[in-house]
Write a structure and sequence with these properties.
alpha+beta
Length: 413
């Protein structure tokens, strides 16, 4: 008698929850591997108590102070509910205007707050499961009661951490629920890219420490229940057109003028105005001479591009006039080199060693040096001793260019 054959059918599709409690299992409430497999760019997730007993490192008045700075990227969105009109003002703002702001229906948003505040920047350590070069910034928004920026979609992943007060979030998770995708058409009557129609499938009120993850293109609307602060950890997701445009510009700038279209095998034309198949093959050959498919060249371009894409500001030389001998002495005495918050870094393996990318520039280094400099925003004397001579020379030059600042031991007391 034959044994029954085991069924090869796959188990029923798992129904993923939209809301969980972190339960002390980190800000995701699960391992990064499970989150990336099941939720990343696929499924929204509300994590209650992602950061238990969270206390905001800044207050609303601190955010307003940054919004008054010349270099800050800030804006205020106001909503006239009676007529459903929206208006946007961009900073920098006058500090004197904030006491006279209405008591409701407005939002102040400031980009790149991780560059302005070290305590906010430290929150990024909880997102180390993501490539650091993929994280754009932490935007902080203050909203008066009723404040909102309207129903919209983002073209990138975002983690929305409630830092102070309460905000009601409504989302349309139709796609994740297997329903037809909602319309993403924009309203033509406002300068913001607000959705013409929005129908929520989920409605939550978030308190301090709760965090909502949204994949790209999930319609959502957040409205302040009371005066509140929200931290938005956003990703960098350049459009294909941006990637192509920059890559082609790079190829053209570096192209050898002697590389040209040529046709030594040309035959008499049947029609002198026809661009035939042979001509197109030669055109492809001419493009291939630029080595568009060279992995090393492509990787170097991508590293430069991603470390300068959406840069918060330009790093300038800080006028450090200490000699290398003096700097090395300072490091031995307890000083440290701290990377400029606007400096973006990444690295990749190369044919020999590695390449370190620093704000759009590439530097050949031993693999260990590239890893050390990329992963340590602060370099102390011990780290410096671990670098090769090539790594030390580069670090000193990066200090002179303003990518690092020297902090003496007495400065830290």
């Amino acid at each position: 008698m034959k044994r029954p054959r085991k069924s090869s059918a796959q188990p029923a599709t798992q129904v993923l929850p939209f809301e969980i409690d972190a339960g002390g299992n980190g800000p995701l409430g699960m391992t990064p591997e499970v989150f990336l497999r099941d939720y990343w760019q696929k499924h929204p997730l509300l994590v209650r108590n992602a950061f238990p007993d969270f206390v905001s490192p800044i207050q609303p008045e601190d955010l307003a102070g940054v919004a008054c700075e010349e270099m800050a990227l800030s804006r205020i969105v106001m909503h006239d509910r009676a007529h459903d009109r929206w208006s946007v003002r961009t900073g920098p703002f006058d500090e004197a205007m904030f006491p006279d702001m209405p008591h409701q229906d407005w939002t102040l948003l400031v980009q790149d707050m991780d560059k302005w505040d070290v305590d906010i920047r430290e929150l990024l350590e909880d997102f180390r499961f993501l490539p650091r070069w993929r994280i754009d910034d932490i935007m902080v928004s203050f909203a008066a009661p009723g404040g909102s920026v309207g129903a919209h979609v983002d073209q990138y992943d975002v983690f929305l951490l409630q830092a102070h007060g309460h905000r009601r979030w409504q989302i349309d998770a139709s796609v994740a629920m297997g329903r037809p995708a909602p319309s993403l058409a924009f309203r033509p009557d406002v300068e913001l890219k607000l959705l013409q129609s929005f129908h929520a499938t989920h409605d939550w009120v978030l308190g301090p420490g709760d965090m909502l993850y949204l994949p790209p293109n999930v319609p959502h609307n957040g409205v302040a229940e009371d005066a509140c602060l929200t931290f938005s950890v956003g990703m960098r997701a350049p459009a294909a057109a941006e990637l192509l445009g920059d890559f082609v510009d790079t190829l053209a700038a570096e192209a050898d003028e002697s590389l040209r279209y040529h046709d030594p095998d040309l035959k008499p034309a049947k029609d002198p105005y026809e661009i035939d198949t042979d001509a197109m093959s030669r055109a492809v050959e001419a493009l291939n001479m630029l080595r568009m498919n060279d992995p090393e060249r492509l990787g170097d371009w991508f590293g430069r591009f991603m470390t300068i894409y959406r840069a918060a500001g330009e790093v300038m030389s800080n006028g450090e006039d200490r000699s290398r001998i003096e700097i090395e002495w300072d490091l031995q005495q307890g000083a440290s080199l701290v990377r400029h918050p606007w400096t973006r870094v990444a690295w990749r393996k190369a044919a020999r060693g590695a390449t370190l990318f620093v704000s759009g520039q590439d530097h050949a280094l031993p693999l260990a040096d590239a890893r050390l400099l990329a992963n340590n925003a602060t370099v102390d004397g011990h780290d410096y001793e671990a670098l090769s001579e090539t790594g030390r020379e580069l670090l000193i030059s990066l200090l002179a260019a303003g990518h690092y600042q020297l902090y003496l031991a007495e400065d830290e007391d």
